[in-house]
Design brief:
Elements (H helix, E strand, L loop, with lengths): L2 H18 L6 E7 H5 L2 H13 L2 E7 L1 H9 L5 E4 L2 H10 L4 E15 L12 H11 L3 E3 L5 H13 L8 E3 L4 H11 L2 E5 H7 L5 E6 L5 E8 L6 H16 L2 H7 L1 E3 L2 E2 L2 E2 L15
Parallel strand pairs: 1-2, 1-3, 5-6, 5-7
Antiparallel strand pairs: 3-9, 4-7, 4-8, 4-9, 4-12, 10-11
Helix pairs in contact: 6-7
Length: about 280
């Protein structure tokens, strides 16, 4: 055999072998709020589901608003969101979507260690927000239509105040980047508890207000049954069921954002969970 033909034949054999080793498992595309990724929970859930089901999960960390839009456009198969009012609007437009509450934790108002606006002594979240605005303290906003940004807007509306343009920094990024910026410039911000617990050791921030119904943070899983691809549809429903009623539940229960803090509380099985306004207690 001529050398050229020999090496060409070897190359074809190698390409053929590589192709035979390609991952041919079905793929489910998941758009999830960034806090599920930033907290480390997705790193626990994804491989466990893949090993059990044989379905590969391709995750995208985005704000809840974008996750729901991607599901609507058919760009993803499953979404995890924590923006109940936004979820309700999408469900009205898509009554065939499957929806189920998954877990919950709290939002935290965090700020500089010295708390220059005196928020720590505030009797309510409304007063806490009012003090930040009155003091002219800087506030870092995600500004990305995420669940956290949506709640931030609701809290400022509840407090009947607004930030001046010079006092707000809009990041357009996820929670971890937003926390880093707030820490660097000694500003206040709103965060989910799990991401803050995960990053606490590297931040110069502290919780300055927490607790109460206005800071309850609920997460839901949403999927559609209208995908014409039966394999993808089955994979999406399988992930949906595994998270809410299968092996995902104990993993969420046992997950720790750091050694001392549980990142999330799994949704109680006895509580209603099929509507965005459902509560865990």
């Amino acid at each position: 055999m001529k050398p050229t033909i020999f090496w060409l034949a070897c190359g074809l054999i190698l390409v053929s072998a590589a192709c035979s080793r390609q991952d041919v498992r079905p793929v489910v595309i998941l758009a999830t709020t960034s806090s599920v990724g930033n907290s480390g929970l997705l790193e626990v859930l994804q491989p466990a589901f893949e090993q059990l089901s044989g379905v590969r999960v391709r995750g995208h960390l985005v704000g809840s608003g974008l996750a729901l839009q991607m599901l609507e456009r058919g760009q993803v198969d499953v979404a995890i969101s924590h923006a109940p009012e936004m979820e309700a609007r999408f469900l009205r437009a898509h009554p065939g979507w499957l929806y189920r509450k998954l877990m919950y934790n709290d939002f935290l108002l965090v700020g500089p260690l010295g708390d220059p606006a005196g928020v720590l002594s505030a009797p309510s979240i409304e007063v806490a927000i009012q003090r930040i605005v009155k003091d002219g303290a800087r506030f870092v906003s995600r500004g990305d239509e995420s669940g956290t940004h949506t709640r931030e807007q609701q809290l400022f509306k509840l407090a009947e105040v607004s930030l001046s343009a010079e006092d707000v920094v809009i990041t357009g990024h996820g929670m971890s980047r937003t926390l880093r910026i707030a820490s660097e410039i000694e500003a206040y911000t709103l965060t989910d508890a799990a991401t803050f617990a995960r990053m606490n050791d590297i931040l110069h921030l502290r919780p300055v207000f927490q607790g109460g119904s206005n800071l309850l943070n609920t997460y839901a899983v949403i999927t559609t049954t209208s995908d014409p691809d039966a394999v993808k549809r089955a994979g999406a429903v399988s992930l949906f069921e595994w998270l809410t009623d299968g092996g995902g539940r104990p993993l969420i229960t046992n997950f720790r954002a750091n050694p001392e803090v549980a990142g999330f509380m799994v949704w109680p099985a006895a509580r209603p969970r099929g509507e965005p306004n459902a509560l865990p207690f």
